[in-house]
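Q: Convert this sequence to structure tokens.
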Amino acid sequence: MKLATKKIAIGVTGGIAAYKSFELIRELKKSGAEVRVAMTDSARKFVTNLTLATLSENPVLDSLFEGNEKLGTVHIDLARWCDVFVICPATANIIAKAAAGLADDVITTSILATQAKVIFCPAMNSVMWEKPIVQQNITRLKELGCDFVDPEWGKLATKAEGEGWGRLASIESIVQKLEFTLLATSELVGKKVLVTAGPTRERIDPVRFITNYSSGKMGFALAEAAKLKGADVVLISGPNNLNKPQGLKYVEVETVEELRKAVEAEYEEADILLMSAAVSDYQTKKASAKKIKKTSAEITLQLKRSPDILALLGKKKADCIHIGFALETENGVENATEKLNTKNLDLIVLNNPLEPGAAFGGDTNIVSIINKDKQVETFTKLPKNRVAEIILNKAVEILQDRNRQVIAV
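A:
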């Protein structure tokens, strides 16, 4: 679990988005974090102490004094305990008080008392969000070292408000921010990592296409793992239903040709290439401009080989580390090793989608990693984010070995 052993304090304030703190707590607990909650008096108008305590599995701090006299300075304890303090939702009121250095409730007092990173997740009316004084308070807090997960555009609380800026950021975006804050390292700072993900589509006619079952989850996990190591990340992906990662360059493509052009445009300055996209091996010789009508007769599709992007890049490879992926249902190690050789790869990651726990679209994978010395390392079923971390660690090892060799020379 990514956030195992991490201690996260959540401050819930009095806004309509307070109910979304339930989902945040649930996701953080699922990731292995220990969660404790503080809430303002106004937050109790929107959510209950009991619900927050049940979800976090810890008592909720909701008063500086009343009912807490026997516990001593509980707000100081919370401030000392946490690795990060996230305010979700953060109202204009709590932002203003924090910017002014006030300490008149459990959250503002804890903010002043903690040495941990403080992250605000604003949620409010769009007019309120755009007010200069609110933006000035936010700027002030950023200058003081606080971080923000900015609100999104979307439907607001009431019909009269309609749509606008001020809607609480997605829970996934908030979790990503917390993961980056708690887990980020510097092994790949200054390095560019290029990742491809998802399937490609090749048109048959305006409504039909050739594709595969790839979800893109492995590639997205690789991009996140590279970002956590400090890299400048470019993620090029075919069609998918995943939430777009924050803090990296994202390029959408559909066809093999679009993927080839996008990769070539980014490749020159890349230090690591992770080619996890499931690229169509074949495409139609000529797509029909009109929908092919159903008849009683059978039809034959004429297909041609798609360009092998990774093999083409392998021919002009210099210092970039190339990591490929082999999906095999038989003779896996033999076939993957052949790809390692013919495509001039540093590593190849092998998996079999027929194995339970390694199927398309799942959150886990079972892989073997083969290096240039033909050494095979096989792993048990793991979450894809853990597989991604292992792959990036091996890429870092290759970089470090090269640096040592340069120094030795």
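The domain at 7-182 is CATH 3.40.50.1950 (Rossmann fold).
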